[in-house]
Amino acid sequence: MAEKRVVFRGWWFPALLLLPQLAITFVFFVWPALQAVRQSFYRGDAFGFGERFVGVSNYTALFTSQSYLASIWTTVVFSLGVTALTLVVSLGFAAAVDRILRGTSFYTAMLVWPYAIAPAVAGVLWWFMFDPSIGIVAYGLRALGVSWNHLLDGDDAMILIVVAAAWRQISYNFIFFLAGLQSIPRSVIEAAAIDGAGPIKRFFTIALPLLSPTLFFLIVIDIVYAFFETFGVIDATTRGGPGQSTTTLVYKTYVDGFLSQNFGSSAAQSVVLTGIVVALTVVQFRFVERRVHY
């Protein structure tokens, strides 16, 4: 059967079809990004009466600020915690569902639902469960003799935002891991079972290496998620506290820009944050991808 192809007689109609998406991309992504880069070289009045060109002073002030350097370390700890917890739990759920003979669709639907919840709502849910006064999880921890108060303890607050942020992202990873496991030929798994390999050995010697492309993709996605898309979770749970123990780079950008009205510093922080994420992505594709077997 011959393949049917659509051939446009001119360039104007394809351009017309692309125009709405290009316009949205320019208005909501390209133009704000260019404005942030421009504003990072200026220091503006808090009341919006004017601005003054300061060159790279906003950038030099960032890297001599102890609070900003602390937020970098907080972001590293937070992103590593979210990525590790998300990958391990979602892979475990995917492996469990893959072994179920009946009810697979039901379990898949239950595990995917949390992804439909907004980050701020997810943060509020976990805040209620871990609240030192009324939280059921905090009550259970106290019954076990574990002291919990994320309002005063920075380590407890970090654990809370890591768990809350990872809980929502687990659903996204689960979908890809389950699809990857189900795409592995059953003949390979059955051959290993006949040779005497147990379930755990089959998973680590066959399934996990074949999942390396999926794993690499999800590592990149989860790091970007932890850097950029977790503002709602942090704002709804700890608001960067106690102190600045949970103030990540994206949350500090918000605090300095919207609360402190330091728009120049906030713009510089957004440029630096974007540069860090781009650099991490390039490093992962340049070096980590070499270990991926397609």
From TrEMBL:
What membrane topology is annotated for this entry? Multi-pass membrane protein
Q: Per the database record, which ranges form the ABC transmembrane type-1 domain?
A: 72-284
Report one GO cellular component: plasma membrane
Transmembrane stretches in the record are 12-34, 72-94, 106-129, 157-181, 202-228, 267-288
Q: List where in the cell it is found.
A: Cell inner membrane; Cell membrane
Look up the coiled coil feature and give its residue ranges: none
Question: This protein's superkingdom?
Answer: Bacteria
A biological process (GO) annotation for this entry?
transmembrane transport
Gene3D superfamilies named among the record's database cross-references: MetI-like
- Keywords in alphabetical order: Cell inner membrane, Cell membrane, Membrane, Transmembrane, Transmembrane helix, Transport
Q: Which family does it belong to?
A: Belongs to the binding-protein-dependent transport system permease family.
Give the quaternary structure: The complex is composed of two ATP-binding proteins (UgpC), two transmembrane proteins (UgpA and UgpE) and a solute-binding protein (UgpB).
PANTHER family given for it?
A: BLL4140 PROTEIN (PTHR43227), SN-GLYCEROL-3-PHOSPHATE TRANSPORT SYSTEM PERMEASE PROTEIN UGPA (PTHR43227:SF9)
Q: What functional role does this protein have?
A: Part of the ABC transporter complex UgpBAEC involved in sn-glycerol-3-phosphate (G3P) import. Probably responsible for the translocation of the substrate across the membrane.
| Name under which the protein is recorded | sn-glycerol-3-phosphate transport system permease protein UgpA
The gene name reads ugpA
